[in-house]
Write a structure and sequence with these properties.
The complex is a heterodimer of chains A (484) and B (506). Chain A has a 5-stranded parallel beta sheet with strand order 5-4-6-7-8, sandwiched between helices. A two-stranded parallel ribbon of chain A has the order 1-2. In chain A, strand 7, helix 16 and strand 8 form a beta-alpha-beta unit. Chain A folds into 2 domains: 67-311, no CATH class; 348-479, 3-Layer(aba) Sandwich (Rossmann fold), CATH 3.40.50. In chain A, 60% of the residues lie in helices and 8% in strands. Chain A is rod-shaped, with a radius of gyration of 48 Å. Chain A has 484 residues and is of the alpha/beta class. Chain A has helices spanning 3-10, 15-31, 37-44, 50-65, 67-101, 110-130, 140-153, 157-172, 176-205, 219-235, 243-249, 257-295, 310-313, 378-390, 408-420, 436-448, 460-468, 471-479; strands spanning 108-109, 210-211, 317-322, 348-352, 370-375, 395-401, 423-429, 456-457. With 506 residues, chain B is α/β, with parallel strands linked by helices. Chain B has 3 domains: 17-211, P-loop containing nucleotide triphosphate hydrolases (Rossmann fold, 3-Layer(aba) Sandwich), CATH 3.40.50.300; 232-304 and 384-498, no CATH class; 314-380, no CATH class. Chain B has 15 helices and 9 strands. In chain B, helix 8 (216-250) packs parallel to helix 14, helix 9 runs parallel beside helix 12 (385-403) and helix 12 packs antiparallel against helix 13. The radius of gyration of chain B is 32 Å and the shape is elongated. Classes of the chains: A alpha/beta (484), B alpha/beta (506). At the A-B interface, helix 5, helix 6, helix 7, helix 8 and helix 13 of A face strand 2, helix 2, helix 4, helix 5 and helix 8 of B.
């Protein structure tokens, strides 16, 4: 992989990487997994954590599937919408200012104007603050309605995935409400700034007269209201109408010019302090929180779609290859040791490596048969070979346990022993019981070693009859010979 | 071509631990590697001698770094003859130590002919730090095994006998224990590669650490990592099951009241539910790194759909209230924005109107279609409670089977009979709650009791009233509430499952 992308991955993963991976996850969970053998192989060789590997796989696959382009398109559209919204906010703010102040031909009702300029702003700010109190709903409804809108507007299947993935990541990082809050506060701040500028322009260029009206309330209410509202702006240097001016404004007569200037200063101060400042503060809070939450962004690797990838991307083990190719088979062959001129001795029965819990001998022995017992281990083996060397039997029956694995050593020994006898047969106990694969392996190995199929018995009784030299039983044994 | 490349890095102080897996032929050496590496594709397994004929390596990784190098070796097949040959190479009068004798053998001509396989094993064991001597616990202890052990022991490295097939009825474990102790091998570990105990690997690494003090830290790290990965797998698996249950519980199909339409809708419902279950099974197999064919899919005995709507389920009503409230708020804001444009002249009127419209709209968007359907006499079909219970039990049984399965296992996974109705998926009414609790395996007793008889978990009851929670539905929505429901349901499943772990008596 190129050096550039390696260094990019070494840094903390970018938000775009999370977004891409999540989009891919949603896509795979909705429409089934993608073919990713090549990407997985590429990712697996990187010395990265599982989380980073998921992100890298997302990047490779996302590029292949064009999801990154979908994200870019959607981001561009989202940015465009944001610009349009900013424009709308500017217009709305300025429009509100124009609407509230009018064209100067009529008197401006100061409290109604204030309510029109700040009322909605205060209301939505209160909504936002209250959303912290509601558990679960937690401001996400803004995001939910936005998502709902994108679902209605989006074209093409990938396009719906992109915002959904965004909402999923942000929601999981608990950053969604802060981000959406930030956007909304920014829009409001723009609207309020536009409103303020428009008012400054209007108040500078036109002559307005302010008053207040009431039918029900006493003038004292207005006096105290003005004082309470104006106290905070006054601390910041905005003008505050004196009590006399407030009382005078309630009558119908026109006020002197400085009084109008005082009122307009008071109005501007109220908008700055109760409108713009809280919004700007909330905006900074949202930005800071979004940044903090995104800095702690982690992949939830237990999500369906990520969890199954663990053994493929970060396997617990890896193959390391072989030392050398396997050698060719070297089966043991039956050898002839017995000198042909030597007279053959009595028949011999011998058990080869039988388990101790097996009854021995396997059946009643005919007279004249020598029972040499069960042979296990080197000394017994050598002793047996010595004896056979001296007294080669006419017939040799070797009894084996077919439930064991026929290994090369045992087969070789059987072949060697068989070489000493005139005739050598093998009885495989338990050939047809238990694990059948092993019985088949015995037959195969013994035949490869040079035993004829009729020299292999599946039952002890038939084998012993052969050993006793009964011609009838011999035939019978011949009939019951195991099939290769 | 020789390709046993070492990847030389490990965080645990120096080079990785190298272990050779040795033993008589056909005792399950490759199986042990498969189970330890959790990789069913490693090597080749067959019930016959000499299946593995070369040394094959695998690395166990901890956090991506190689912690242990494991080497699968060919089986020892000719121990008795080899010991004879060794004596022949180094007569009794000559006093040379074991490793030197082995080295001498490796230079001899027979090491490339008759004892080629054994030579590979010994060469690898000389290079390694220790050997795992795999024993088929069903075999009798024979002279050839003792000779083999004598040869392996003369390599001068610690040997840890690993008793395989310990769950088999024909096992001869006590005979093996006695024989191994007589040979001076007192530390040994039982590890069934087909069905390993849950803490089997931990025991294995513990015993190894006893033998190899120098590598104890690395083995502890490996053991802890194995435990961590196991917990992680389990949590992931239960989450997959929880997602499945929520999906199925929440899913509903609307159908015209005619007989034919109902039949088709029922059919669709069953097919999709089965497909969804199968997807979950595949994900679980993938998570546990088993192959697809390890669990032949059994049709979910789906019988029993629920008719009628949960429109007036208390939770649905509560939810509707919340949604209308949200709609109102949104509408109020829309109206208020209108007021701004109209410069506050109509302050209030538009807001009120907007609120009403918003509330109606939100309510209509969410419930309108269903309301309308109800007025038209449409029926809504969903999967019955009993099917849900069965589904949960089956998936939990599968998770348990996967946890207890070794990667060497060749036979398909079998669930207890009551969860599978082979061949008759459309039978009369095979509801799990009505099946007599005959052959209930003890492992599943407790969780089945909780899922069988008690009330359905609250999360599922809630999902019933939330059609959008189902990924099967067209307007699937992963709301914050659904996420909470999935994770708390997964926790409940974990709690139900936790009490059921049966420890094999050792």
């Amino acid at each position: 992989m190129p050096e550039a992308s390696r260094s990019a991955i070494a840094q903390p993963p970018s938000f775009a990487a999370f977004w891409l991976a999540e989009t891919l996850r949603l896509r795979e969970s909705l429409w089934g997994p993608l073919e990713d053998a090549r990407e997985v192989r590429r990712v697996r060789s990187e010395p990265l954590s599982f989380e980073q590997k998921i992100l890298l796989r997302g990047r490779h696959l996302g590029k292949r599937e064009g999801l990154d382009a979908s994200i870019r398109n959607w981001s561009a559209a989202a940015r465009l919408i944001l610009v349009v919204l900013c424009g709308a906010a500017l217009l709305a703010g300025a429009g509100a200012a124009v609407g509230a102040l009018g064209d100067g031909s009529r008197q401006v009702n100061i409290l109604l104007a204030l309510a029109a300029l700040l009322g909605l702003n205060t209301l939505t700010l209160a909504f936002w603050l209250m959303s912290f109190l509601v558990q679960g709903a937690g401001g996400a409804w803004l995001g939910e309605s936005w998502l709902w809108l994108t679902r209605k507007l989006a074209r093409g299947p990938n396009a719906t995935l992109v915002p959904r993935a965004l909402a999923e990541i942000l929601g999981r990082a608990h950053a969604l409400r802060w981000l959406l809050g930030g956007v909304s506060h920014a829009l409001w701040a723009i609207a309020l700034s536009a409103m303020l500028l428009a008012m400054l322009a209007l108040l500078s260029a036109r002559r307005y007269s302010f008053n207040w009206e009431t039918t029900l309330l006493s003038p004292d209410v207005f006096v105290s209201l003005t004082r309470i509202l104006g106290w905070l702006p006054a601390q910041l240097g905005f003008s505050m109408p004196t009590e006399a001016i407030v009382r005078a404004s309630g009558s119908l007569q026109a006020l002197p010019e400085p009084a109008q200037a005082l009122w307009s200063g008071w109005l501007l101060g109220c908008i700055v302090v109760y409108g713009l400042l809280p919004r700007v503060l909330a905006l900074f809070l949202c930005l800071a929180m979004t940044r903090r939450r995104l800095a702690g962004l982690r992949l939830d690797t237990s999500l369906p779609g990520y969890a199954e990838l663990r053994d493929r991307l970060a396997p617990a083990s890896e193959h390391a290859g072989i030392d050398a190719p396997a050698p060719a088979d070297q089966p043991a062959r039956k050898a002839i040791h017995a000198p042909p001129d030597q007279p053959l001795d009595q028949p011999i029965l011998v058990g080869i490596e039988l388990p101790p819990d097996l009854a021995w001998p396997p059946g009643p022995l005919a007279p004249g048969v020598a029972d040499l017992g069960v042979i296990d281990g080197r000394t017994q083996r050598n002793a047996l070979l010595d004896r056979l060397q001296q007294h080669a039997p006419e017939r040799l029956l070797m009894v084996c346990d077919a439930q064991q694995t026929p290994d090369r050593g045992t087969t070789a020994m059987l072949a060697e022993l068989a070489g000493f006898a005139g005739q050598a047969h093998v009885a495989l106990l338990g050939l047809y019981q238990g694990r059948e694969g092993r019985g088949a392996a015995w037959l195969e190995q013994l035949q490869a070693a040079g035993f004829q199929p009729q020299a292999l018995h599946g039952e002890a009784a038939a084998a012993l009859a052969w050993l006793a030299g009964e011609p009838r039983a011999n035939e019978l044994a011949g009939d019951q010979h195991v099939e290769p | 071509m020789s390709s046993l490349e070492a990847r030389p890095q490990s965080d645990h102080g120096g080079r990785p631990l190298r272990l050779a897996v040795v033993g008589h032929t056909n005792t399950g050496k490759t199986s042990l590697l498969r189970t330890l590496t959790r990789d069913p594709s490693f090597g080749h397994i067959e019930d016959r001698p000499g299946t593995t004929r070369h040394v094959e390596g695998a690395h166990l990784l901890v956090d991506g770094a190689v912690a242990v190098e494991l080497y699968d070796t060919p089986g020892m097949e000719d121990g008795i003859a080899l010991l004879d040959y060794l004596d022949q190479l180094a007569p009794a009068g000559e006093r040379i130590d074991g490793p030197e004798r082995i080295r001498r053998f490796l230079q001899s001509p027979e090491s490339k002919r008759r004892f080629e396989q054994e030579a590979r094993v010994l060469r690898k064991l000389l290079e390694c730090d220790a050997g795992l001597y795999v024993v088929d616990g069903r075999d009798p202890v024979l002279g050839k095994h003792k000779d083999e052990l004598a040869i392996l022991a003369s390599c001068g490295h610690p040997l840890l006998p690993v008793l395989n097939f310990t769950r088999s009825p024909e096992k001869r474990l006590s005979a093996w224990r006695d024989a191994l102790a007589r040979l001076g091998l007192h530390a040994m570990v039982e590890f069934d590669t087909i069905a390993p105990a849950l803490d089997g690997e931990a025991q294995l690494y513990d015993k190894l650490a006893l033998l190899m003090d120098r590598h104890a830290a690395l083995l502890r790290a490996l053991k802890e990592d194995v435990g961590r990965q196991r917990a992680l797998r389990r949590a992931d698996a239960l989450r997959l099951v929880a997602e499945l249950l929520i999906d199925i519980a929440a899913w509903r199909l609307s159908s015209e009241p005619s007989q034919e339409a109902l039949r088709i809708a029922t059919q669709t419902l069953r097919e999709k539910a089965r497909a969804r279950e199968n997807a979950c099974v595949q994900a679980l197999l993938k998570r546990y790194n088993f192959r697809r064919q390890d669990f032949p899919s059994h049709g979910l005995p789906l019988e029993g759909e629920r008719w009628g709507m949960d429109l007036f389920h208390p939770q649905a009503l509560k939810d509707m209230g919340i949604h209308v409230g949200k709609g109102m708020a949104a509408g109020a804001m829309a109206g208020a924005t209108l007021d701004v444009f109209m410069a506050g002249l109509s302050l209030g009127a538009a807001t009120m109107l907007g609120a009403a419209a918003g509330g109606l709209w939100q309510g209509a968007d969410k419930f309108g279609k269903r309301m309308l359907g109800r007025l038209k006499g449409y029926q809504e079909i969903s999967v019955d409670d009993q099917v849900l219970r069965l589904l949960a039990l089956r998936q939990l049984a599968l998770v348990q089977a996967l946890e207890h399965r070794g990667h060497a296992a060749q036979t398909p996974i079998e669930l207890p009979g009551e969860f599978v109705q082979k061949g008759r998926p459309a039978a009369a009414a095979p509801l799990v709650a009505e099946t007599p609790p005959l052959a209930k395996p003890p492992a599943l007793k407790q969780n089945s009791d909780a899922l069988r008889d008690a009330r359905l978990p609250d999360e599922l009851t809630e999902a019933r009233s939330q059609p959008r929670w189902s990924t099967l539905s067209d307007d699937y929505e992963n709301s914050a509430r659904r996420k909470e429901a999935v994770s708390s349901l997964a926790n409940k499943l974990a709690a139900m499952d936790a009490g059921t772990e049966v420890r094999p008596a050792l």
